[in-house]
TrEMBL record:
<dbReference type="Pfam" id="PF00563">
    <property type="entry name" value="EAL"/>
</dbReference>
<feature type="domain" description="PAC">
    <location>
        <begin position="225"/>
        <end position="277"/>
    </location>
</feature>
<dbReference type="InterPro" id="IPR013656">
    <property type="entry name" value="PAS_4"/>
</dbReference>
<protein>
    <submittedName>
        <fullName>GGDEF domain-containing protein</fullName>
    </submittedName>
</protein>
<dbReference type="InterPro" id="IPR035919">
    <property type="entry name" value="EAL_sf"/>
</dbReference>
<dbReference type="InterPro" id="IPR035965">
    <property type="entry name" value="PAS-like_dom_sf"/>
</dbReference>
<dbReference type="Pfam" id="PF08448">
    <property type="entry name" value="PAS_4"/>
</dbReference>
<feature type="domain" description="GGDEF">
    <location>
        <begin position="307"/>
        <end position="441"/>
    </location>
</feature>
<dbReference type="InterPro" id="IPR000700">
    <property type="entry name" value="PAS-assoc_C"/>
</dbReference>
<dbReference type="Pfam" id="PF00990">
    <property type="entry name" value="GGDEF"/>
</dbReference>
<dbReference type="InterPro" id="IPR000160">
    <property type="entry name" value="GGDEF_dom"/>
</dbReference>
<feature type="domain" description="PAS">
    <location>
        <begin position="151"/>
        <end position="221"/>
    </location>
</feature>
<dbReference type="InterPro" id="IPR001610">
    <property type="entry name" value="PAC"/>
</dbReference>
<dbReference type="InterPro" id="IPR052155">
    <property type="entry name" value="Biofilm_reg_signaling"/>
</dbReference>
<dbReference type="InterPro" id="IPR001633">
    <property type="entry name" value="EAL_dom"/>
</dbReference>
<dbReference type="InterPro" id="IPR043128">
    <property type="entry name" value="Rev_trsase/Diguanyl_cyclase"/>
</dbReference>
<dbReference type="InterPro" id="IPR000014">
    <property type="entry name" value="PAS"/>
</dbReference>
Length: 714
């Protein structure tokens, strides 16, 4: 016995064989099964590529569905068997090794897209067939007219042998003759059908122009017309047809009869409706999906001047925890229950609820008074989530964050409205969740700007858009420049120079702070070496040092210490030229693992400064376990010293901190010194060094060199 094939190509061919065996019996083709299998092979290969692609390509899957129609797989059973085969075997043979959840989800989306592509191709094929029928009707008109004049026998052969329904009526609408195909369509006998009048077949779903065209034809003003029409059968069912009606004239050219040709399209229409439903509704909850919601929203926004809308965008809080703890099956049941509750909240005319995907839902309301109606709708939604949902014997509390957008139609596109609702929802989630927020254009603009900055950060570092400014650190005793703090800036192409408060939080959130911090460290140490080479080393004051800020994300990065060592060695700079500043809040509750890098830096000779001291509400006893050499006192404690006399409370606080620091052999640096009186008072209190606008604003490195030269020359 041979081994089961296990290569990707073998698996692909096995899937193709299974597919061809399932579909070939219901396919109208002259190919052999082996030839048909070869025709399916590139389609199977395309499905395999789509399943394993990084992004989801709906158009590619639609093309596969359309190709089935091109391969004459037009029987509805062919599509059903194809979807069953893809559902059962595509992931098994084409997904490869590894977790199957993501391929399963993508496989389901591929099936939906294939069905949509199949329906669209089938519709185009139907239109082509309709045109063919219209041409056949014109030809039949001449054949029937000639048969009536030439030979009743020849006419009867054409009439009865036609595969489509054929009926003849006089100009008053009385049915004169009908062939067997037409009788079978209606389920009537010839005697019963002959007693009917064409005008009796009015149907509620008739197109507006149907009977206008009919009247024009019987008056001799039109030779023929073609349209889709529904008829009521005696058993209560509806017959849908492609109907072509032609005018038959006598030998003198006067109108005499009307000839109807009918093709039964009921099954095709039902299939199209089913495919349309599946393409526009969520498979899990049955709610309208993103596609149908956008169609409805765009229709509302294009309704014209004076129309308004209200939209609620809901995201469940903590839904991932349900999936992670109870499993995806429990998460799905939770979503179904939430969908049912939301559906009960939107029952008024002009309201709808849809699922966008995952645990995100939207509710739409239209008509007058939407400002009030959308608030009421949001309140109903939040109240609907109060009652716990029972899943597998557990009562789960469901919370949600809701973003509300209300406004006039015509001012924004559907994508812009949904983006505003999404931003507002995340604002509600950031505020703690389980609440609703109303859209704010200014907040939207800030969020969009933040997103733009976040996406531009990686390339900004590559393009060299960052630069560093340096603010000198001055000794309060003798006024000498002892070093500088490195402050990174971003020269943005559109927004100009941005301070660190605009982009450092974004870099920390995305993890880009690690490569950015490494770059700042490299540039700062390189600059420290340049200063030492130009300025030399003061025997009393020591060499100029560079202070570099260290974020919590950098502190927890495993390569921090080695990266710093490598940078110092490449630059030929001793560790004592570097001081790393860590905020007090970053070290609150820090465990030994987090403090290990700081201890290693201290052992190397790198100074550690505790930045923003006094703002972190930390226990002062923690100073004993932190390897810090310098306390940087936050400017909030010294702001009251800018004028004379100084705030006595601030004086006592600063005096106490300085005394404590010196007793622990720690130096004290003060930030934000802006006046001479403030600097003098801090000197009297015993502070060691200071920085602020009183001495110099952050600037290029040359300015620090000039200040150091001035200090050296007196």
């Amino acid at each position: 016995m041979s081994a089961e094939p296990d290569g990707p190509e073998d698996r692909l061919r096995r899937f193709t064989t299974i597919w061809s065996r399932a579909v070939y019996p219901v396919t109208s083709t002259s190919l052999t099964r082996a030839e048909f299998e070869q025709r399916l092979l590139p389609l199977a290969r395309r499905l395999s590529e789509l399943l394993r692609a990084h992004g989801f390509d709906a158009d590619g899957a639609k093309a596969v569905g359309a190709a089935l129609v091109g391969a004459h797989c037009t029987d509805p059973e062919a599509l059903a068997r194809t979807l069953d085969c893809v559902d059962a075997y595509l992931v098994l043979y084409c997904a490869g090794d590894g977790p199957q959840d993501e391929p399963r989800i993508r496989c389901s989306r591929l099936q939906h897209a294939m069905a949509a592509g199949y329906a669209e191709a089938l519709r185009r094929r139907t239109l082509a067939e309709q045109e063919s029928i219209a041409q056949a009707a014109l030809r039949a008109q001449g054949v029937v007219a000639q048969a009536l004049h030439a030979s009743e026998a020849r006419f009867r052969a054409v009439f009865e042998g036609a595969a489509i329904g054929v009926g003849i009526a006089d100009l008053d609408g009385h049915v004169l003759q009908a062939n067997q195909a037409l009788l079978r369509m209606f389920g009537l006998s010839e005697q019963t059908l002959r007693g009917r009048r064409v005008q009796d077949w009015v149907h509620p779903e008739d197109a507006p122009q149907t009977w206008k065209l009919y009247d024009e034809l019987v008056r001799g003003e039109r030779e023929h017309y073609h349209l889709e029409k529904a008829f009521n059968r005696p058993d209560g069912t509806v017959l849908w047809t492609n109907l072509t009606v032609s005018l038959l004239r006598d030998a003198d050219g006067s109108p005499q009869y009307q000839l109807a040709l009918m093709e039964d399209t009921t099954e095709r229409r039902l299939l199209n409706l089913r495919l349309r439903y599946e393409a526009t509704h969520d498979a899990l909850t049955g709610l309208p999906n993103r596609t149908l919601f956008f169609e409805r929203l765009e229709k509302v926004l294009n309704a014209g001047e004076g129309q308004r809308f209200g939209l609620c965008y809901l995201d469940l809080d903590g839904f991932k925890t349900v999936n992670d703890s109870l499993g995806h099956a429990a998460g799905d049941r939770l979503l179904v229950e939430v969908a049912d509750r939301l559906q009960s909240c939107a029952t008024a005319p002009g309201e709808m609820v849809a699922r966008l995907g995952g645990d995100e839902f939207v509710a739409l309301t239209t008509g007058p008074g939407t400002a009030r109606k959308v608030d009421e709708l949001a309140e109903r939604i939040m109240n609907a989530l109060i009652t716990p949902i029972s899943i597998d014997g557990r009562d789960l509390m469901v919370r949600g964050s809701l973003g509300i957008v209300e406004g006039p139609a015509g001012e924004r596109t559907a994508a812009e409205v949904l983006r505003s609702a999404d931003i507002t929802m995340y604002r509600a989630k950031s505020a703690g969740g389980n609440r609703s927020e109303l859209a704010d254009p200014e907040a939207d603009a800030r969020a969009i700007t933040r997103h733009g900055l976040t996406t531009a950060l990686p390339t900004a570092l590559e393009r060299g858009e960052f630069f560093i400014e340096y603010q000198p650190l001055v000794h309060l005793g003798d006024g000498s420049v002892r070093g500088a703090e490195a402050l990174v800036r971003w020269l943005h192409p559109q927004h100009g120079v941005l301070g660190p408060d605009r982009f450092i939080p974004l870099a920390e959130h995305t993890g880009l702070i690690v490569p950015l911090g490494r770059w700042v460290l490299e540039e700062s140490i390189r600059q420290a070496r340049a200063w030492r080479e130009r300025h030399g080393e003061d025997a009393a004051a020591g060499p100029l040092r560079i202070n570099v800020n260290l974020s919590p994300c950098q502190l927890s990065h495993p390569g921090l210490v080695q990266d710093t060592v490598d940078i110092l060695e490449r630059a030929g700079v001793a560790p004592d030229a570097l001081c790393l500043e860590v905020t007090e809040s970053a070290l609150i509750g820090a465990d030994d693992d987090l403090l290990k890098p700081l201890h290693r830096f201290a052992e190397m000779g790198v100074d550690i400064a505790l930045d923003d001291f006094g703002t972190g509400y930390s226990n002062l006893a923690n100073l004993r376990r932190l390897p810090v050499r310098i306390l940087k006192l936050d400017r909030s404690f010294t702001r009251g010293m800018q004028q004379f006399p100084a705030d006595p409370v601030d004086l006592k606080i600063v005096e106490g901190i300085v005394s404590l620091a010196h007793s622990l052999d720690l130096a004290v640096t003060v930030e934000g010194v802006e006046t001479g009186a403030q600097a003098e008072q801090l000197r009297i209190l015993g502070c060691d060094t200071a920085q602020g606008w009183y001495y110099a604003r952050p600037g290029p490195p040359e300015r620090l060199h000039d200040l150091a030269l001035v200090d050296a020359t007196g």
